[in-house]
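Table S7 (text form). Paired inputs.
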Amino acid sequence: MIQDLLSRHILFVTGKGGVGKTAVSLGIARAFAKKKLKTLWITFEDPLLIPGGVREIAPGLIHLNACAAVAFEEYVTMKIGASAISRVFVKNKLVQYLAQAAPGIHELVLLGKVWHERHLYDRVVADLPATGHGLAMFQSTQNFSVLFQGGPVHRDAVAMMQTFGDPAQCGHLLVALPEEMPLREALELENLLHEIFPDNAVDFLVNRVFPKTAQADPTDTDPPSRWTSPLAFTAHEYIEKRAILEDFNLRLWRERGLKFAELSYMPPGSDISEKLSCELIEKGYV
């Protein structure tokens, strides 16, 4: 259940691009802060924000725009222990080249930042990049934990994967829209995450769900084919048809016995993350 998931120290929010992942993750972080939990909301390398920038966006809520270059320098400093020496090391052209070219280093240090910062906050909410890149971050870290058999990087990678795979410490929330393609892709992503974290089941959330003014006939295998017209001629008819179609699409998850949370459709232009945080609290999710 999502209530159990949202009680964990670290939360990764993932899913296909365009499903409202960022708004949902920020909404969850805002809800935590409203519950007086010191919360860190992490995004990854947003080009519109300062690399590695930290800012307070609400009382008790800090936003970090994680940057691989900054995280790499911080990691080297922690391991070497002397900032002057570490700066010389990091600025070395060969080291800079290896940091950018070595497979998996980029993803490893970004996840390492999440893992390190968890000690400073009651909750850490990470807005993962869209499906493929977000999955690659875990796969790269897993590869480091398996392929390298010694050294600090290996030890840290192993510890990170143990933390992220521990259902007592970390949760993975998969967000989708009530549309066929995102729902199917979410199931595929769940299978891939299960291979990486077999002991830490994924939880599901459907975002932007229209008001349930009508439900699909459970015996109807294709509701739109029964409509006299695919077009809606009034607002009420549009909402009703959309509710039926969304309910029909969600069979993809219900038929697999999946339990999932739902968040309402929010009109453009509103403060979506703030409204989502209120809904999360009202529904008892947080």
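Next pair, protein 2 of 2.
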Amino acid sequence: MTAVSLTPAGPFSLAAGVRFLEDFTPACYSGTAHEVLRLAFPADDGHSTVAAAVRQEETADGAAGTVRAEFTVHPGVPDGDLDGSPADPASAGAGPVSTESGSWPDEAVRAQLARILSLDVDGSGFPALAADPVVAGLMAEFPGLRPVCFHSPYEAAVWAVIGHRIRMTQAAAIKARLAERYGRAVQVAGRTLHAFPTPPVLRAITRIPGLTEVKIERLHALAEAADAGELDAARLRATPVDDALTALRTLPGIGPFSAELILIRGAGHPDVFPHHEPRLHAAIATAYGLDETACGDIGRLAGIADGWRPYRSWIGLLLRARAERIGRHAS
């Protein structure tokens, strides 16, 4: 097991992130906001699996405490003919990778953890956006909340395909079953978690109850794209936004909405205004006291969002979190 530290630049609350995950259907997360955050996910190398326990230190002055993560990297499960049967138990139970043997390095895992928690972004300038009264209200309502991203663009893309035209709860159940049946089972701080299958494993699965053959073919294509580096987070974020979105839309089953999801919540890009997310548009209109017709005026909404640079993705998350909270209370 390896231990690493992440020092937040700007406001950050791990507890707020855990509370967000508990309400975020794709995460299927169950935990307690004031204890450890347990994670299990395919590493960015596309073959290994990471098991991590994340905690944040408390500080007396209310500043963002250091985030500490303990993790283990497990080797990839050998490719096989998965015709609907679970992965070989002996392979799934293989021991952790030794980082001394040239396997996926600790620093790469640290970088992926930082990206998942949006700690790879300097948030020291974020409080200055409170000059906007709407943003100030969001910061007060969700103190220290930063986007908690999908573990990778690969997982975000898979979610987009699974969830297309079905209920989110149904999609979440299918994704959870895939993890339990084909993903690696790991122990994290006293609990057993199942990571989502790595791209080579997903590519070999031929039958997934609840998904059409077309969706399965699209999942295979996404696994191949991940193996080819087309879903590399660093590359997507280094590419101009419009170009990155255009490239993502060439993937089977990925339309404009899904491409934005992958870039923002998969690659963790901090400064994108989504042009294809009606719920966010409605949340902006409501927050800024605009009439209903403004929801369709993307240019006007994008102009408002320009005032949130370079954290447009972050403010968008806070607006969605508020809208979801209001919706839960209303129901």
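The chain has one domain: 2-330.
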